């Protein structure tokens, strides 16, 4: 019919909501995995021994390229252009890392040296007399090993003035540490040092070289008397005033000191290697002179 109104159909399009997707689920899963790994590592470290943690730290301190190269080789440098320091086969950074690795020691040996330091500390603190000397006893770990330094003060010198005669409290200290040094298989080095004040006789006469050597040898005798095994002694030397104590002037009394060094295996092997070219024993017997007679009493220098 013409009078009928047309039927109009309105179709409305529904607006589709954006799909959130699952990216957030992946990110959350990655986060949970990382947290689980982190807590697992923390749990393992908490239940592991000091030696194990030290070994892990030593592993991560070794440069990757050095480990892959199997040692300290020129291929350990990560630069194609040589240079950086005295060694042209390494850049400065690679050379520094290799030098650091050469100064490290095994974690077991490091732990033994630290334990020895603690035992010496305990022995000193347990003795009222030695406890008064604590300020004159300096212990630290060096690239050579555990260094035990016995230093002078004006009020309490370790030796009698200008001589190698050991003071009574110095003798007690050496007698206390001698049995503890026997507990480790490491070799021992004893080094004597003096201040820079010269003797009246000049460089040609009795001087700081002789004094430092005789004081180191006197310390050796005290340690041996107290029970130190003879086969542990590797070197006894006098350095005169060539190596001042850190942070003091050349005439400071702290320069007058004895250093007893418990050498690590690497340092001891290097010292032994220096004498690998020594003469045949028969030739040495012919060339080495007899022990000279004791020197006359030296003129005492003011200390």
Automatic annotation (TrEMBL):
<feature type="transmembrane region" description="Helical">
    <location>
        <begin position="21"/>
        <end position="46"/>
    </location>
</feature>
<protein>
    <submittedName>
        <fullName>Flagellar motor protein MotB</fullName>
    </submittedName>
</protein>
<feature type="domain" description="OmpA-like">
    <location>
        <begin position="146"/>
        <end position="266"/>
    </location>
</feature>
<dbReference type="Pfam" id="PF13677">
    <property type="entry name" value="MotB_plug"/>
</dbReference>
<feature type="region of interest" description="Disordered">
    <location>
        <begin position="277"/>
        <end position="303"/>
    </location>
</feature>
<keyword id="KW-0966">Cell projection</keyword>
<dbReference type="InterPro" id="IPR050330">
    <property type="entry name" value="Bact_OuterMem_StrucFunc"/>
</dbReference>
<keyword id="KW-0282">Flagellum</keyword>
<dbReference type="InterPro" id="IPR025713">
    <property type="entry name" value="MotB-like_N_dom"/>
</dbReference>
<dbReference type="Pfam" id="PF00691">
    <property type="entry name" value="OmpA"/>
</dbReference>
<keyword id="KW-0472">Membrane</keyword>
<keyword id="KW-1133">Transmembrane helix</keyword>
<dbReference type="InterPro" id="IPR006665">
    <property type="entry name" value="OmpA-like"/>
</dbReference>
<keyword id="KW-0812">Transmembrane</keyword>
<keyword id="KW-0969">Cilium</keyword>
